[in-house]
Write a structure and sequence with these properties.
By secondary structure, the chain is of the alpha+beta class. It has one domain: Beta Barrel (OB fold (Dihydrolipoamide Acetyltransferase, E2P)), CATH 2.40.50.100. A hairpin with a 2-residue loop joins β2 and β3.
Amino acid sequence: MNTPNDLRYTKEHEWVRLDGDIATIGITDYAQGELGDIVFIEVDTVDETVAADEVFGTIEAVKTVSDMFAPIAGEVIEFNEGLEDAPELVNSDPYGEGWIIKMRVKDSDDVKALLSHEAYSDLIV
């Protein structure tokens, strides 16, 4: 299972990469494997401020539809529009081209409170 050590993680299998006050967020390799083939992603919270643990969108796989929860509080500033035509990028490249949203972080301490690579790896074994 691929879990890059430069990211932070949630127990709900999302990852966060912080660059200044911008967080890029996606689902983990483990999550995409559990969901199966991703067929549609909907994010209707762009330009909205969401609280940590608030639903920011949904992800639909062949098997199921799941809510996606914001791992941190902030403003959703961008949706990866490449996923509109190619949602399968979440399956093939979950930490790269398959990122889902970017947020302007309200409090960088929220990111520090997320799981480290080691803690997340222990969770999924």
